[in-house]
């Protein structure tokens, strides 16, 4: 006799979330508890305890990026580091995934003046306003481990391919954003996967292997881990909001 609402969100903002929230508000207010991937308080705690998470950001002792990358690639990263506020003495010791996050990013902002607020943030604020308890499905740092737990050789390969990709990340982001609001996200993700490394000589099989590996860590493994805290709950109405890719 339980009812569990599962909502797919976008973490980055867009003013069109106003209309999405109109559909969500009655469900949030009627819920006994709201779950997000992580709450704002958890993320703030994680930021304060950054030193405790350093093993997920730093390479093993004795290993550096100049040893793992070509001299050309390392020269490019060394010039990039100051722009990312990475100290020169730290830059060689960061795991490759940290830099991949920059190259895989986009400069396209969401539409509208309230674009900075993603759907997760809006849901949490609304639930808090109406005193609906809010919790996280995972511990701080679990998401980071999805990147750092991959073998270093694959992190390096993914970074190299991302640095050389001629496919525009802005195009990828807009495709995924629009497919979300069209409710055709599966198609958007398939198209994005198909194009991700299409401009390079890497085989389709190798590109798929690297992308599938990241998806397993970032999505599949976490989905399974979230089942336990969900199934333990006894409340009549549970509202769960996680990134739409998890659906």
Low-confidence stretches: none
Radius of gyration: 19 Å
Distinct helical segment count: 11
State which percent range the strand residues make up. 5-15%
Strand order of the largest sheet: 1-4-2-3
How do the SSEs run, as a string of H and E? EHEHHHHHEHHHHHE
**Which structural class do you get from the secondary structure elements?**
alpha/beta
Give the N-to-C terminal Cα separation: 23 Å
Helicity range of the residues?
Answer: 40-55%
Main sheet specs: 4 strands, parallel
Rounded average pLDDT: 90
- Per the principal axes of the C-alpha atoms, what is the gross shape? globular
Q: How many DSSP-defined strands?
A: 4
Written overview of the protein:
The chain has 247 residues and is of the alpha/beta class. The protein contains eleven helices and four strands; from the N terminus they run E-H-E-H-H-H-H-H-E-H-H-H-H-H-E. It has helices at 17-30, 40-48, 65-68, 71-80, 96-103, 119-129, 142-148, 152-164, 169-181, 185-195, 204-231; strands at residues 3-9, 33-36, 134-136, 237-243. It has a four-stranded parallel sheet, covered by helices on one side. Helix 5 packs parallel to helix 8 (152-164). The longest helix has 28 residues, at 204-231. It is globular.
């Amino acid at each position: 006799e339980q009812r569990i609402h599962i909502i797919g969100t976008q973490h980055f903002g867009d003013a069109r979330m106003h209309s999405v929230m109109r559909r969500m508000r009655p469900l949030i207010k009627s819920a006994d508890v709201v779950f997000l991937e992580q709450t704002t308080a958890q993320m703030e705690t994680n930021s304060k305890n950054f030193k405790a998470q350093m093993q997920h950001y730093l390479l093993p002792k004795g290993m550096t990026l100049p040893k793992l990358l070509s001299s050309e690639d390392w020269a490019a990263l060394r010039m990039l580091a100051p722009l990312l506020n990475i100290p020169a003495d730290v830059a060689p010791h960061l795991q490759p995934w940290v830099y991949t996050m920059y190259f895989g990013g986009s400069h396209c902002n969401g539409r509208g003046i309230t674009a900075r607020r993603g759907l997760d943030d809006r849901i949490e604020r609304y639930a808090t306003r109406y005193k609906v308890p809010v919790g996280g499905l995972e511990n701080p740092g679990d998401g980071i481990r999805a990147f750092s737990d991959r073998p270093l050789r694959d992190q390096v390969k993914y970074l190299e391919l991302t640095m050389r990709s001629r496919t525009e990340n802005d195009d990828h982001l807009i495709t995924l954003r629009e497919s979300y609001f069209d409710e055709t996200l599966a198609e958007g993700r398939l198209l994005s996967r198909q194009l991700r490394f299409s401009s390079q000589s890497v085989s389709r099989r190798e590109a798929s292997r690297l992308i599938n590996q990241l998806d397993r860590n970032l999505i599949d493994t976490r989905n399974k881990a979230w089942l336990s805290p969900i199934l333990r709950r006894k409340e009549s109405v549970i509202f769960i909001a996680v990134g739409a890719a998890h659906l």
